[in-house]
Amino acid sequence: MTQLDGRVALVSGGARGLGAAYVRALHGCGASVVIGDLLDEEGTALADELGERARFVHLDVTSESSWAVAVEAAVGLGGVDVLVNNAGIANTGRIERYDREKWDAVIAVNLTGTYLGVRAVVPVMKAARKGSIINISSVEGMRGDAGLHGYVASKFGVRGLTKSLAVELGADGIRVNSVHPGFVLTPMTERLDATLQRIPLGRHAVPDDVVGAVLFLAGDESAYVTGIELVVDGGMIA
Ligand code: NAD
Fold first, then answer.
1. What's the number of domains the chain is made of?
2. Is residue 123 part of a domain?
3. What is the complex's ipTM, to 2 decimals?
4. Which of 86, 147, 166, 185 is a Cys-bridge partner for 176, taking CB atoms 3.0 to 4.6 Å apart?
5. DSSP one-letter code for 5
6. Which pLDDT tens digit goes with each residue over 127-138?
7. In 89-207, which ranges are continuous DSSP H helix?
8. What is the set of active-site residues?
């Protein structure tokens, strides 16, 4: 089992859904966790439930100053060993109805939010000469999909940003990888088309199906792994 005793992980969008599953798993492996999210009530409840080694901070990933507060909370717990850039939103529409507002919103949270998270933690990780950045992309960052234009573009962007950072930051001891979940049952996917025909394993994922990928990339088992796309999709893009 992954050992993360004495490490600190910061998880954006950690109050519910996949983010909360990553928080619970990282904490269960011994890490201290900072849960960053817009959802104060859910985030505070999760931090209270986990108790020692868990903090909630109100985080808007589109804001540089908000990231500074989250990083400060992590440094207060000992540093930032792991950043999981998980916060994300999705919206849909055929291109004629996919207006500028939708585009801007999804790019701001999913892509710019990831970029700002990296910028916020890199000075701390560089000073420590270690760190693992895990950017949550999607199976939609591996292939096109009708009606999900901004989401797909943002997730391809996250994948590209990840690769570029892996090349740049390797010499500083910082690893950067992306995780690409398939169709996972969470509040985000409640209203999306959930056909099983595209999933060879024959079922939708639950958040715990993706946790192992994040733990692997967070811990020392992946010490020589950087710049990869870890796809956890039940075979959707096989
Ligand atoms: P979710 O909607 O359940 O959770 C997303 C979390 O991000 C929420 O807690 C939300 O409050 C938070 N968030 C949204 N905007 C934010 C902002 N500006 N600042 C801080 N927090 C913000 O969604 P989920 O399904 O758990 O998705 C988590 C991540 O996994 C997303 O990046 C999503 O794109 C990705 N993903 C999900 C699936 C899936 O099938 N559910 C598949 C592939 C990738």
1. 1
2. yes
3. 0.99
4. 166
5. T
6. 999 999 999 999
7. 100-106, 113-128, 149-169
8. 151
